[in-house]
Specification:
It is built from 3 helices and 10 strands, in the order αβββββαβββββα. The longest helix has 20 residues. By secondary structure, it is of the alpha+beta class. This is LytTR family transcriptional regulator. One of its GO terms (molecular function) is phosphorelay response regulator activity. It comes from Spirosoma foliorum.
C-alpha cells in the first residue's frame, strides 16, 4: 500500500502553538445534564453513532454527546475539520498520511486511528487537505514561529 505524506505530522506542542491562528473557540457540549467546554483544537476525530457523536481527543480520552454528527459539523471550523466519510469528521491538524489502496483512500491520524474516505467525497477531501497544507506552509514561513520543525 502506497503512503502519501503531505507534510511531517504536527506534534501536540505544535498544535497548541498554531491553534489560535485557525480561529477555533472552545465547544460547549451537553454532558450528563450540564454543559462542558472542550478545546476544539484538541479534538482528533468525531465519529457518528446514530443520534450521538463520539469525540476522540488528543490525550486519548473519549466523550459521547447526544448531538448528531451533522449538528456538530456546523459548529466546527471548516478550515481545520474535514468530513471524509458520513460517519467521521477529522481534524486536519492531526493528519498523518493518506493511503491510496486500489479504489479506496484511507486516512491515518497521529493517534493511530484510520478512517476511510468515501469515493464520493474523495476529490473534495483531497482539495481541502491540500488547501490546509498550503496554509500550514504559509504559517510555517512566518518569521515569528516555526511550526514544522521538530
Amino acid at each position: 500500500m502506497k503512503k502519501t505524506l503531505f507534510a511531517k505530522p504536527l506534534t501536540n506542542v505544535h498544535v497548541e502553538l498554531i491553534a489560535p491562528q485557525f480561529d477555533m473557540p472552545d465547544l460547549t457540549l451537553p454532558f450528563w445534564g450540564s454543559r462542558k467546554k472542550m478545546p476544539m483544537h484538541r479534538i482528533v476525530r468525531l465519529e457518528g453513532e446514530g443520534n450521538y457523536t463520539l469525540f476522540h481527543f488528543a490525550d486519548g480520552s473519549q466523550l459521547m454527546v447526544s448531538l448528531t454528527l451533522k449538528k456538530m459539523e456546523s459548529r466546527l471550523s471548516p478550515k481545520v475539520f474535514a468530513r471524509p466519510h458520513k460517519k467521521n469528521i477529522i481534524n486536519l491538524l492531526y493528519l498523518e498520511a493518506l493511503h491510496p489502496d486500489n479504489q479506496q483512500l484511507i486516512v491515518s491520524l497521529v493517534n493511530g486511528d484510520r478512517v476511510e474516505v468515501s469515493r464520493r467525497k474523495a476529490s473534495r477531501f483531497i482539495k481541502q487537505v491540500k488547501g490546509f497544507q498550503q496554509e500550514l506552509l504559509i504559517l510555517n514561513s512566518a518569521p515569528t514561529i516555526s511550526i514544522m520543525a521538530a
